[in-house]
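To whoever picks this up:

The nightly regression suite flagged Adenosylcobinamide-GDP ribazoletransferase as changed. Nothing in the input moved, so I suspect the structure step. Input below, exactly as stored in the fixture:
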Amino acid sequence: MKRIKRYAKRFIIMLQFFTTIPIKENINCHAEDYGKGLVFAPFTGLIIGIILMGIYCGLELFFPHEVVFAFIIIAYIVLTGGIHLDGLADTFDGLFSGKSKEKILEIMRDSRIGTNGVLAIVSLLLLNYALFVSLDLQDIKTVLILFPAAGRMASLIGAGASGYARKTWGLGKSFIDFCDLKEVIAGSLIYTLAIYIGLGVEGLVIASLTILFPYIILKLIEKKIQGATGDVLGALCELNQTFFLICFMLYKGVIFKIF
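Regenerated output under the current build:
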């Protein structure tokens, strides 16, 4: 019973931290709960996706396909509070500054957004919109449910496969310090099962690619800052969501036509 309560607490913490869903529950938690709770990050992504799918089903009755996806992107930003997009912007500002590790981390911590950060957000949102609009109608609802799970899977991998880059405390320290291989494996199973249910056996290829991709990006980032931060976890989330959409489109549009 204690274990069930602990898991339930950590799941609620993930919903409270990664979404703007109004859960008015004052939970007594520790730093460990954030890192260990990341095992539920892919499931949190599925909940975000289900909400987005519901919004799509409502809006498609009144608006053209292209307009609906503009609303979907806005709804996603509102639903997540833009927390991962903020991490994406900070990460790109830091990594593309051409500075030393210490200066990169300083830039990433700065609340102000720079040119590289703006370009990263605009480019990714434009690409997401183009990918959404290009989806076949029969695939839209499934993709809307699954793509946020791919993003949160990437954050889990980023936390579990790296150390904390800063010498001082930061927002991502609790996640990175207390998330280990056990959480990554369990979260990967949740994520892969969701992909399998949604896309069938062929979806396992996409699941594998979207587990490998954030790990590769993480290792490239580690060459710059010798670890990860909360901003990096957010950047991995947003990048992997877009990568999921690209993989899905290539797999359905190219490989399916070949075979």
